[in-house]
Specification:
Oligomer: single chain
Number of strands: 24
Largest sheet: 5 strands, parallel
CATH topology of the largest domain: FAD/NAD(P)-binding domain
Low-confidence stretches: none
Number of helices: 11
Helix content: 25-40%
Distance between the termini: 76 Å
Bound molecules: flavin-adenine dinucleotide
Shape: flat
Structural class: alpha/beta
């Protein structure tokens, strides 16, 4: 029986990971073709920051080189853009050819969001998304002195650190009151800013950029409050925009991303979306861990293996800037139900915050009350009590009760 034709648009991290998962499950199921508009084989986009920070070279971040594609019988078309999907004939048109498919995966990722303000198209205004963007920044640093990064989030700070490493004088412009405001509270944001200032980074906070100045190349920035600064390079790191145009033209439902169900299937049962371009349950994820989970589900589904489907992910982030040991996971906002416990060691400059649901605290109080009522116990009672404990508390809570009792009995 001839193999089914599996075509994937996008040769990036989530897409190729999905193909790896498919090969792991059933290497002979599909005849695979991948179209990618970058001139490289699949590379680790996360490590672009390391290239800018002089820690790695472009060849060191390649994840799957050409021999991997060849040895897995995958046809790869690089430097080639898919421009049209014809769902009636199951054909994708690229800048060079027409390719038919039985199953089509959209893994087109995102592009850097560029502020739609006057001057955004000037030479010297860049996003930070690709090897090409990174190489342009490094080339600019050899000719020019001053760089401005718009956006004090994870990506902006990594770009700013990299431009410092390239010898530039770097200013970060941020709209919010503190850095990384979606991952950090105000105190952590201030500590991070102080650390980065000590490394030589400059900041302009609560600034909204209104215009990029210059005739053919950028010379400065103007802000809504009427102030201006001079600069030779502008890197916009204010967010990403999922690449959904192909899906929109093919009349597939889209929101922020291409809408998929729990099996990463679009409204067309022959077309799937995975990675940053996909929107699941109203969320388009922008970090690789959830995207790899999606890839596993899609691989199971495409290989006919029973799967419970994808049901969303909790996100965590880590800043890749030397000297700043920063990790943030889950929701960071306190409210009536969720309260934070903070520890700040001002000598070692360490700040930690854990958020707890209030019911956990009240449950702990109940646990202490329960303990106070339990003096020494005979074996039969002990068994009954074990049953009662298991009915009322979780395993970690029971371990805490036992520990508490051992300590109390030792006294
Ligand atoms: C500098 C930087 C640092 C990052 N750091 C982290 C980190 O620390 N942790 C983390 O979890 N995530 C990080 N990320 C995000 C992470 O890289 C992305 O979440 C991940 O790459 C998304 O994978 P993807 O396959 O969905 O998209 P991509 O990797 O962007 O791949 C999509 C590919 O499709 C191609 N494409 C798009 N349209 C077409 C078309 N029409 N025809 C052909 N090809 C097309 C694109 O050119 C691209 O090559 C970082 C990103 C950047 C840029």
């Amino acid at each position: 029986m001839p193999k089914q034709k599996l075509l994937m648009i996008g040769n990036g991290m989530a897409g190729v990971r999905t193909i790896e998962e498919i090969l792991d499950r059933n290497p002979d199921k599909y005849d695979i073709t991948i179209i990618g508009d970058e001139p490289h084989p699949n590379y680790n986009r996360i490590m672009l920051s390391n290239i800018l920070q002089n820690k790695m070279t472009p060849s060191e971040i390649i994840l799957n080189d050409e021999t991997w594609y060849a040895s897995n019988n995958i046809t790869l078309h690089t430097d080639e853009q898919a421009i049209l999907i014809d769902r009636l004939t199951n054909t994708v048109t690229t800048t060079k050819r027409n390719i038919t498919y039985d199953r089509l995966i959209l893994a087109t990722g995102s592009r850097a969001f560029i502020l739609p303000i006057p001057g955004a198209d000037l030479e010297g205004v860049l996003g930070f998304r690709t090897i090409a963007d990174t190489e342009k920044m490094i080339a600019a640093s050899k000719k020019y002195e001053r760089a401005t990064v718009i956006g004090g989030g994870l990506l902006g700070l990594e770009a700013a650190r990299g431009l410092l490493d390239q010898g530039m004088d770097v200013t970060v412009i941020h709209l919010a009151d503190w850095l990384m405001e979606t991952q950090l509270d105000a105190k952590a944001g201030e500590l991070l800013k102080a650390d980065l200032e000590a490394q030589g980074m400059k900041f302009l906070m609560q600034k909204a950029t209104s215009k990029i100045l210059g005739k053919s190349r950028v010379t400065g920035l103007a802000f809504k409050d009427g102030t201006q600064i001079e600069t030779d390079l502008v890197v916009m790191a204010i967010g990403i925009k999922p690449e959904i145009e192909l899906a929109q033209h093919a009349n597939l439902p889209t929101g922020r991303g291409i809408v998929v169900d729990d099996f990463m299937t679009t409204a067309d049962p022959a077309i799937f979306a995975v990675g940053e371009c996909a929107e699941h349950n109203g969320i388009a994820y922008g970090l690789v861990a959830p995207l790899y989970e999606q890839g596993k589900v899609l691989a199971d589904h495409l290989c006919g293996i029973e799967t419970k489907g994808y049901h969303g992910s909790k996100m965590f982030t880590q800043l890749k800037v030397s000297g700043c040991d920063l990790f943030s996971a889950g929701d960071i906002k306190e409210n009536a139900e969720i309260k934070g416990v903070t520890i700040f060691n001002s000598i070692e400059n360490k700040y930690k915050k854990n958020l707890h649901a209030r019911w956990q605290a009240s449950r702990c109080r109940a646990l202490r009350r329960y303990n106070r009522r339990q003096p020494s116990i005979q074996p039969a009672q002990k068994r009954r009590r074990t049953h009662r404990l298991h009915a009322r508390f979780t395993a970690p809570q029971i371990r805490r009760i036992r520990k508490y009792e051992r300590r109390r009995n030792a006294r």
